[in-house]
């Protein structure tokens, strides 16, 4: 009957959900917002990673410059042999 839905608070649309899904609507909204934030964060991380991998100086040249600086530090006596070998091992990986 026509007045039955109106009496249950449904207005002219009848009873039931009436476009309001209770807790399901806000839940879907939070899931959607979470996905959007995740996509934005992943996009920013991907873009910054792409910029970091842009070749500015070769890795070998950087490694050689660091080894030269390490040798000078060792030769000046600021580090001992044990520390020199440990740092050299890290740079040669």
Describe the structure using short key phrases.
93 residues; mainly alpha; 2 domains; 69% helix; 0% strand
Short synopsis of the structure:
With 93 residues, this protein is mainly α. Helix content is 69%, strand content 0%. It has two domains: 1-54; 57-93.
Number of helices: 4
Largest sheet, described in full? none
Give the overall shape, derived from the CA principal axes.
Answer: elongated
Mean pLDDT: 78
The share of residues in extended strands comes to under 5%
C-alpha Rg (nearest Å): 32 Å
Low-confidence stretches: none
Sequence of secondary-structure elements: HHHH
The end-to-end span amounts to: 81 Å
- The helix content, as a percent range, equals 55-70%
Please report the total strand number as a whole number: 0
Number of domains: 2
Tell me the structural class.
mainly alpha
Description:
The model has no long low-confidence stretch (mean pLDDT 78). The protein is mainly α and 93 residues long. The chain is built from 4 helices and no strands. The protein is 69% helix and 0% strand. The chain folds into 2 domains: 1-54; 57-93. It has helices at residues 2-7, 24-52, 59-76, 81-91. It starts with a helix and ends with a helix.
